[in-house]
Design brief:
By secondary structure, the protein is an alpha/beta fold. It has helices spanning 16-24, 43-53, 69-81, 101-108, 132-149, 165-169, 183-193, 217-233, 235-241, and strands at 2-9, 29-36, 58-62, 87-90, 114-118, 125-126, 161-164, 198-202, 204-205. It has one domain: Spore Coat Polysaccharide Biosynthesis Protein SpsA, Chain A. The chain has nine helices and nine strands. 43% of the residues are buried.
């Protein structure tokens, strides 16, 4: 199985070489697409140099500015789908997501349509160094989103996922409206509404060691009211396709 890993970047020059080394050390057939938003720290130029050193395994999409994680993933998904990958992974560039977990994800994908790395399912965890307010905001945000959307998932905001290509091809990606991190919730909800089989794999979410986090309280507050937009945007699919427990493992 050929897995294409889509990694959005903005000022991740300190992390990118090490992450790529870890990915290419895995016993998997991998290629990587780096979607860089014109990083001021030179991440895009570094990515090009790494692509030259790993011919055929790394591609780079350069974008003119900081256009956001949602459009980065959507553009990246469309790009690798055209190239025939069997599965598409999405992950952060800052080592918050353990690259080695992709091996387990790839095995689970045999029995479902998308595997989601979950911090809040049994066996999952977040970095012990997270302050109390951040833990509460993250866990509370998940509870809030899944309650409003009636999603039987423990972690609807996780950014570590492995999709079957046919799953993404079957989703109306042109309907996705999210601009920020709420994109993760919208994609999970859309997959659920369409009846795709979703499995949650417990993961540990580590604090980044280098660089600066892009998450903020403002982003979280904005996401809270955008949940209602998502609920309304897919009410047609919700009525037509959802039944209790559909698509869950």
């Amino acid at each position: 199985m050929h897995i294409a890993v889509v990694i959005p970047t903005y000022n991740e020059a300190e992390n990118l070489p090490g992450l790529l080394h870890e990915l290419f050390s895995l016993p998997l057939q991998l290629s990587v697409l780096i979607v860089d938003d014109h990083s001021p720290d030179g991440t895009g130029d570094l990515a090009e140099a790494l692509a030259l050193a790993n011919a055929g395994r790394i591609q780079v999409l350069h974008r003119p500015g900081k256009l956001g994680i949602a459009s980065a993933y959507l553009q990246g998904f469309h790009h690798v789908l055209q190239q025939g990958a069997d599965a598409i992974a999405q992950m952060d560039a800052d080592f918050s997501h353990d690259a080695a977990v992709l091996v387990s994800m790839s095995k689970w994908l045999d029995s479902c349509d998308v595997v989601m790395g979950s911090r809040y399912t049994r066996g999952g965890s977040v970095d012990a160094r997270w302050p109390f307010w951040r833990r509460g905001l993250s866990a509370g945000g998940n509870f809030y989103a899944r309650s409003i959307l009636s999603l039987p998932l423990k972690d609807v905001t996780t950014g570590y996922r492995l999709w079957k290509s046919e799953t993404l091809r079957g989703m109306p990606l042109d309907r996705v409206q999210a601009q920020g991190y709420i994109f993760q919730v919208e994609m999970a909800y859309l997959a659920y509404c369409l009846g795709y089989r979703i499995r949650e794999l417990p993961i540990h979410f580590a604090e980044r060691q280098k660089g600066t986090s892009k998450m903020s309280l403002q982003i979280q507050v904005e996401a809270a009211w955008r949940i209602w937009q998502i609920l309304l945007a897919y009410r047609d699919l919700s009525r037509a396709h959802r039944t209790a427990g559909i698509g869950m493992h």
